[in-house]
Specification:
This protein is an alpha+beta fold and 176 residues long. The protein has 3 helices and 5 strands. The chain is 28% helix and 27% strand. Bound molecules: nickel (II) ion.
Length: 176
C-alpha cells in the first residue's frame, strides 16, 4: 500500500467531475486500499478519489470512533429520505485547517457497489449522512467551502495559497 497525495483547494483538479467505474477489479481494490491508508494517516473520516487526483466515482469513509468500520462506495447515488436540514461543522482534507457550518438534508439513502462489485444499499443519518453527501459532492467537483459566503471562500483561498508558498520556501507552516 502507499500514501497518496491529497490535492488542496483551490487546485482546479478538485473541480473535475469523476466518471462512472465500469469494472471492479484488483487494480481498483489496490486504489481503495491506498485511499484507506491515506485517509487514516491524514487523519480523516472520508476521502473521495477526486481528492487524490483519481477522477473515478469512488469514495471511502469510516465515521466510527475506533476507526474499525471502513466503508467503500463505488458509483454512489444518493436519495434524500428526510429533507429536514441538519447543520454540521464540516472540515475537509483538501481544505486543511478550516471548519464551518454546512446544512444538508438529515437523512439519505445511498446505493452503490461494494469492493467486490456487489450492489449495496444503506440508509444514513447524522455524521454518516453528512460525510456521504460531502464525499459525493467531491465526485461532482464540489467542495464544502462552496456552501459558504464568497467572502469566506476568498479568505480561505488566499490563506491556503500563502501557506503553500511558505511551504515551497521551506518555512514552517502556521497552524492558526
Ligand atoms: Ni472533503
Amino acid at each position: 500500500m502507499s500514501l497518496l497525495t491529497i490535492l488542496e483547494y483551490p487546485d482546479l483538479r478538485l473541480r473535475k467531475r469523476a466518471s462512472l467505474i465500469s469494472e471492479v477489479n484488483d487494480n481498483l481494490r489496490r486504489t481503495i486500499d491506498d485511499m484507506f491508508e491515506t485517509m487514516y494517516a491524514a487523519p480523516g473520516i472520508g476521502l473521495a478519489a477526486t481528492q487524490v487526483n483519481i477522477h473515478k466515482r469512488l469514495l471511502v469513509l469510516d465515521v466510527s470512533e475506533n476507526k474499525d468500520s471502513p466503508l467503500v462506495f463505488i458509483n454512489p447515488e444518493i436519495d434524500v429520505l428526510d429533507p429536514e436540514p441538519l447543520g454540521y461543522e464540516e472540515g475537509c482534507l483538501s481544505v486543511p485547517g478550516y471548519f464551518d457550518l454546512v446544512t444538508r438534508p438529515k437523512k439519505v439513502k445511498v446505493k452503490a457497489l461494494d469492493r467486490h462489485g456487489q450492489p449495496l444499499e444503506m440508509e444514513a443519518e447524522g455524521l454518516l449522512a453528512v460525510c456521504l453527501q460531502h464525499e459525493v459532492d467531491h465526485l461532482d467537483g464540489k467542495l464544502f467551502v462552496d456552501y459558504l459566503s464568497i467572502l469566506k471562500r476568498q479568505r480561505i483561498k488566499h490563506k491556503l495559497l500563502k501557506d503553500k508558498k511558505k511551504d515551497e520556501r521551506g518555512e514552517t507552516r502556521a497552524e492558526a
